[in-house]
């Protein structure tokens, strides 16, 4: 069994934030299929997220999406979280489901609608104040579908102005993280399409504005670990939205489509000082369209943990020696040796040493929680994306 | 003004089928925005489609989508169409919006669900009998999201069996056209992902099974005109679903994203004998998420007409001479000369000669129809995709 | 250590053909860098290939490329191979490095050049007769760079005619395998761009014409294992050219870019009856531009062996049960369980039981062969691709 | 005929720099085909480039590539250029064809090789001093082929240091432009893969360091006009390398693959103040692998001119009004109206008014120059890329 002793402390430092919306229904433009037992309100979502943490010890916080997760009392929701052993985390804004935003939100040419979108973000900061959240995460659906539809340049300038207004509202311990995305839902141009744009927009704001890297938001063939290395070098990598994809923004379980890519990304995070670094938040952003949601999230955090363990196991001395010698095959072999290692048994033992179940998936399934929610949660509709 | 006399008859032979669903609301998984005046039932959709034909003379038929367009009496709907100057056309099946189809329809491992999906198609043929439609178009959302989820091979065999059952039900003058799509809504594998699969499946059925080519359903960089040439060579190009895309299956207005590609496709259609050939149906399949729907369809058929006119204008003698001489620049110049020609003025005159408005977009806007439907169509919900 | 007893015989049946050109220099359009000790003629290439087999037991045959590997006596070259413990295998034609083929070879509009290209293939069959090779592999660089440059359709028809002439020359135990490629060196259209085209062209020839699938020759995002499943279903998968890629036809070491994809491909090969099936040849087609060539090939065959072992280890009963139950997570978990298994130690033991070195890479490096060839092979130029 | 009077002065301000290497042979890794009459040395290349300017008035300068274009006396070469009616322009460095650069140049881990690469660039600045050139253009082939081969981060830091040393050598009126490229010749990671990297590296250097945008150096689907708008907004767009592509870095004639994209790019250049702006150099970077080189360049500059004329013709008042009203179809129609205009006749007349031939392609072919060089230039080998 692989010896994890040298990396045991590092593993213990891992924390992955769960998205509340992963516990709601989701789908494609063609159909949102329902899944029995799906959470219907923020309280149920938090309860479900707490199960993931209970069985893995990896997921101490839950991200909120406003307005999907609006509640009367955020203090009460925070208390509910704590009672379940977790905390509330990043607050995500949402400016893509109101008719006013059909042609843009923070980039809209109409000052009234821009103001409405800005005000939504200010309310999100109010929520953060109430929940004690540090990060305001902004992903914008803004863009156009047809050449000529709007001015790319004017929208970029309006975006800068809107972001500055929001940034000014942040508290000293709060941050703004700006997510970029290659395309969808806009099909001709997207206002924050790449890391470069997110970088220049956040660099213009100040030190508490950072870039959020969603692993599914790139053009085909993009070397994501390069972007990780570059953003860490620039001190601007604020957070990850982990998921995986075969084609576009498929939002599949992280590590499911290309586990070697996940390993490479985590290796670069570690090398660049981004691991167990509070400045770099690890989050999931996924859609469990077909599979069960709670075990889907458990599988996800375990995938990240396994890839992290492998990335921590790379023999750096041997790697550097081979790199210095320009021995391409030897360097690659050192790298692959860690990737090819089966860490699952050792991680099970490591978990058990910490009072966690060796097999979190089996433990969850045996817990009876799933049966309970499938029986209890009948009726009701969720405020979620397309759900 | 460009002389169209040599191609005037060919232009007059053009007919483009409109999709009823283009007149309903549509959107992305993030949001379906409403548009004032949108049709709410099959009768209103047919009325709207008829406007496109009234102002362009290009769109004499309307395709139906079952069950979105289910009505009590298809004979009555057909009469409504004729009263409005159009006819009912291709019947499209839909096996992607019922919970039973979460894991597949014609490919499902459960015989009960396969039978349900087959029966749905048999009912579609009943509709065709009632409407006098020739073509049953099958696009399947079937596929899987995760490696291992199901057997790729077993699903392909089940597909063949299901299609054979449906094919056996067709009348002598009816056809089955099978559409392929690269990805979405399935993210790991799709059961009919490419023209090769659609070809081998329809070749196994018989002569009345053909391939449907949707111009937005290919991998990045795919040379679509090559596929057109190949399918025409094989006698298996049954129909087009025209639209355009920058990234994935964006379903934008045909010709909007890459007008030169549309020209190349139409040139290959003409060279391969697929133009004004009843075996090769021209259809639109688009989503007007942001723009007005009736003028969006008018713009679409005009784009196809303009590209067709240009493709018909290519000087084939000069082209062949340059090709024979391997004069790459000269051959490309002959090709581009037609593409770079501005045919709009000549087409306006050509239309006016035939009693049509020279500027169909302006004529539609001046007609008052849009104002009327925006005033009249308040309330109601459409059975449409995500609408 | 993983128990390989159930799959031991299957592993023993594996044979991977090596490409002679992998032992020559290669590069990009920007530069072909030299590597010390590189083989300079077919005899040296065969000697090097034999080293791979000597240390792995996996590579009993060597493919030739004509005219790169032209020799005065193929009988003598075959004897040289046997003396080194290997045999000569597939004969690859080459119609891309003669000025006459600037505008095409088997598809050229000039009958004289088509005839020249056909005659080259007939000479390749002569070589096959002399070497006892079964397969003639045809990869064509034919295509065009600019729209209008030539007739896509006419070229396809000429291709069919040329292939038929070549096919007619084959002996009863010989086969023609036609490789497809998405793009490069042609940039607008390629005459055999996809599996569909290779399928319809070889289906028209007869049972001894098959498709060759090069794993690097697809559009971004293509699901290759689907194509494997489909071609096996159709009885037309004749051979693989294994390699890996991040972007285009990078020709990297197989399994280096996406080891999970290699596992999925091999799983589908096994499921479809293509493993240890003489009709489906496993070959490598790679370019070791930067890394040492012999150990590069050793790494490659080991990568295929490891992925094969994992694919053979999938618990099919558990997989089918989960698939039947539509338990997406469970099915995926069974699949990933095999992939995540570290088979390296067990394979080392398995090798040693068969008198092979447990660590073929280390054994090769310790053998002194590399030092010898680096010292001996000074001067001379290779007939190779760009070398 | 289209009225160009309002844009006549703007058209007269256009200048496009030609690459000397476009007049040499080029090809793919598979083959460099020769073309009769191809220039064999820098003097002949300059003479050929001068023909393009003579017949179009669009190409007053020629870019050099060092060491391909090394001569004994740059003053003499500059005089030769002036005698032929053109001037020498940008100096391009080349660190991809020396064995020392197999594993990198400015990013190499060995200080000796880094120094060698830096020194090469300093010598390029010496050439610039001699020729009076303003811009040093750096495109780096640096990167790795295999994960683990080298440290992505360390290479980025070394790149920054190397660039700083080169930048310090520049004169006050000289600039460094850094080109990015998605992939090739490196297949795993490239050290300057995207505009973001080029931006942050040049921003760190100072105001005289700018980004070079090659239109063929992006991932599939990238919206290039967005990058143009962003770089102009940031004041960092230093130059264009124009060409076109269907798949990768195909280096086809600009406007040949997607003329609408070229139009959109030029529209954004104009809107962002980058047109007829000395800070933004227009250059070609193409490979005429199959077609004749001088007429290939004439076609290229004419394509840019035609697209520029169309982009200048966009009715900005109408466009803004439609954009303000969020009338997507109207805004797109204004945009497309300019694109669909046939400006060729008006441009021919505009040229003739300025003493230039109306049809530069025909005039060149009639001039006899091509016959002369095909007869005269026999023998000799060019220092060019792969030539």
UniProtKB/TrEMBL annotation, chains A, B, C, D:
<dbReference type="GO" id="GO:0019301">
    <property type="term" value="P:rhamnose catabolic process"/>
</dbReference>
<dbReference type="Pfam" id="PF06134">
    <property type="entry name" value="RhaA"/>
</dbReference>
<keyword id="KW-0464">Manganese</keyword>
<protein>
    <submittedName>
        <fullName>Putative sugar isomerase</fullName>
        <ecNumber>5.3.1.-</ecNumber>
        <ecNumber>5.3.1.14</ecNumber>
    </submittedName>
</protein>
<keyword id="KW-0963">Cytoplasm</keyword>
<dbReference type="InterPro" id="IPR013457">
    <property type="entry name" value="Rhamnose_iso-rel"/>
</dbReference>
<dbReference type="InterPro" id="IPR009308">
    <property type="entry name" value="Rhamnose_isomerase"/>
</dbReference>
<dbReference type="InterPro" id="IPR050337">
    <property type="entry name" value="L-rhamnose_isomerase"/>
</dbReference>
<dbReference type="GO" id="GO:0046872">
    <property type="term" value="F:metal ion binding"/>
</dbReference>
<dbReference type="GO" id="GO:0008740">
    <property type="term" value="F:L-rhamnose isomerase activity"/>
</dbReference>
<dbReference type="GO" id="GO:0019324">
    <property type="term" value="P:L-lyxose metabolic process"/>
</dbReference>
<keyword id="KW-0684">Rhamnose metabolism</keyword>
<keyword id="KW-0413">Isomerase</keyword>
<keyword id="KW-0479">Metal-binding</keyword>
<dbReference type="InterPro" id="IPR036237">
    <property type="entry name" value="Xyl_isomerase-like_sf"/>
</dbReference>
């Amino acid at each position: 069994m692989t010896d994890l002793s040298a990396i045991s402390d590092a593993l213990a430092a891992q924390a992955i934030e769960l998205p509340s919306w992963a516990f709601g229904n989701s789908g494609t433009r063609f159909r949102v299929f329902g899944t029995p037992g799906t959470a219907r309100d923020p309280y149920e979502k938090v309860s479900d997220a707490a199960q993931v943490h209970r069985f893995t010890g990896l997921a101490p916080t839950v991200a909120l999406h406003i307005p999907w997760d609006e509640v009367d009392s955020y203090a009460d929701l925070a208390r509910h979280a704590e009672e379940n052993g977790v905390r509330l985390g990043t607050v995500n804004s949402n400016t893509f489901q109101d008719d006013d935003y059909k042609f843009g939100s923070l980039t809209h040419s109409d000052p009234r609608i821009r103001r409405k979108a800005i005000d939504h973000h200010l309310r999100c900061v109010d929520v953060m104040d109430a929940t004690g959240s540090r990060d305001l995460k902004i992903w914008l659906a803004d863009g156009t579908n047809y050449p000529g539809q709007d001015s790319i340049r004017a929208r970029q300038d309006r975006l800068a102005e809107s972001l500055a207004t929001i940034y000014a509202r942040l508290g000293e311990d709060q941050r703004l993280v700006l997510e970029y995305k290659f395309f969808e839902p806009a099909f001709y141009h997207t206002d924050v399409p790449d890391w470069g744009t997110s970088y220049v927009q956040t660099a213009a704001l100040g030190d508490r504005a950072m870039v959020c890297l969603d692993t599914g938001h790139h053009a085909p063939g993009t070397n994501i670990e390069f972007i990780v290395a570059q953003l860490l070098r620039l001190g601007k990598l604020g957070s990850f939205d982990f998921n995986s994809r075969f084609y576009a923004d498929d939002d599949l379980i992280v590590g499911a489509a290309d586990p070697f890519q996940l390993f490479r990304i985590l290796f670069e995070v570690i090398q660049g000082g981004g691991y167990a670094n509070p400045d770099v938040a690890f989050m999931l952003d996924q859609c469990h369209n077909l599979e069960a949601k709670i075990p889907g999230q458990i599988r996800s955090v375990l995938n990240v943990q396994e890839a992290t363990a492998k990335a921590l196991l790379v023999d750096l001395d041997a790697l550097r020696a081979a790199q210095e010698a320009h021995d391409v095959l030897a360097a690659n072999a050192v790298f692959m040796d860690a990737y090819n290692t089966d860490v699952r048994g050792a991680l099970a033992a490591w978990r058990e040493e910490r009072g966690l179940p060796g097999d979190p998936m089996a433990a969850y399934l045996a817990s009876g929680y799933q049966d309970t929610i499938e029986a209890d949660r009948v009726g009701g509709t969720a405020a979620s994306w397309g759900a």
